[in-house]
Write a structure and sequence with these properties.
By secondary structure, the protein is mostly helical. It folds into 2 domains: 63 residues; 109 residues, Serine Threonine Protein Phosphatase 5, Tetratricopeptide repeat (Alpha Horseshoe), CATH 1.25.40. Helix 2 runs antiparallel to helix 3 and helix 4 runs antiparallel to helix 5. The longest helix has 43 residues.
Length: 191
């Protein structure tokens, strides 16, 4: 009888222990899942620092290499977003080459900004070409042919066959030749 009571008590303790352990791990898994869901939502709305904190909290409940990968991704997104913002500022400052360089650094995994950055590269190239053509024309009008040619050379680094730059280049050649002819004619008259 005493052995039967001991067995019943022991079985009861084991059942209570199993229930307690099961409840503990289920609760831990539930908190882990909620934390992970909140972190994923924070990434979507670009609250990256909050997302990192939540991912790190989730790792306290369960070690998971996928969560570590997500932390690395969020850090990459932070850097990519900052690079994109710097490029946008460079456009307003008319630093088109710097903007192009930064747009090229926007990571492919940054789905919100990558395709926009690629189109901005084309836009910046166009603005850079237009800016240099305008500058070349201004230099040409003021008779600064070397500076005009330098502005056109900047264009040819991007677009070897730019029709507008070729036209300005030809006009510069004619203007230089005209200037040489006038100098030669003035020398001939003064003799």
């Amino acid at each position: 009888m005493i052995n039967k009571k001991r067995v019943i008590i022991l079985i009861s303790i084991i059942i209570v222990g199993v229930i307690f352990v099961t409840f503990y791990y289920m609760n831990k898994a539930q908190v882990y899942n909620k934390t992970l869901t909140a972190a994923n939502k924070a990434v979507v709305i670009e609250e990256y620092n909050k997302a990192i904190t939540l991912y790190e909290d989730a790792l306290n409940y369960k070690k998971d290499t996928e969560v570590n990968k997500k932390i690395v991704l969020v850090n990459l997104l932070i850097k990519s977003k900052a690079t994109y913002a710097a490029a946008i500022k460079q456009i307003t400052d008319k630093n088109y080459l710097g903007a192009i360089d930064n747009f090229k650094k926007v990571d492919k995994q940054d789905s919100k900004r990558y395709s926009i950055a690629q189109s901005k590269i084309s836009e910046c190239t166009k603005l850079y070409v237009e800016d240099n053509i305008k500058r070349a024309k201004d230099y040409l009008i003021s008779g600064k042919f070397d500076e005009a040619n330098k502005s056109l050379d900047n264009i040819f680094k991007f677009e070897v066959n730019n029709v507008n730059a070729d036209k300005v280049k030809a006009y510069i050649k004619r203007a230089i030749q005209k200037q040489k002819d006038e100098v030669a004619q003035a020398k001939a008259i003064s003799k």
